[in-house]
Design goal:
mainly alpha, 3 helices, elongated
C-alpha cells in the first residue's frame, strides 16, 4: 500500500483488500495488478476529491436541459 501515495489510505481495510483477493482467487500477482489498476483509476478520476467538486454546473444542467422528460 505504501506505493499508493496520493490515495486515501483509510479505504484499504482488510475487508476492502479481501475483495480483490477473492476476485482473483488469491493469486498474488493477479491481485496486485488488479489493485494497482484500481488505484490508478482512483487517481486518474480524482475519486478522493469528489466531495470538493463545484456542483453549480450540475444544477444549471438539471434546470436547463431536457433529458428524458420535459415539463
Amino acid at each position: 500500500i505504501k506505493t499508493f501515495e496520493g490515495v486515501d489510505q483509510e479505504r484499504f481495510t482488510d475487508q476492502y483488500l479481501l475483495r480483490f483477493c477473492r476476485a482473483r482467487k488469491f493469486v498474488l500477482e493477479d491481485v496486485k495488478k488488479m489493485l494497482t489498476d484500481h488505484v490508478q483509476w482512483i487517481k486518474d478520476n480524482n475519486v478522493d476529491k469528489i466531495g470538493q467538486m463545484d456542483l453549480d454546473w450540475f444544477t444549471f444542467l438539471k434546470e436547463n436541459s431536457c433529458v428524458g422528460y420535459c415539463n
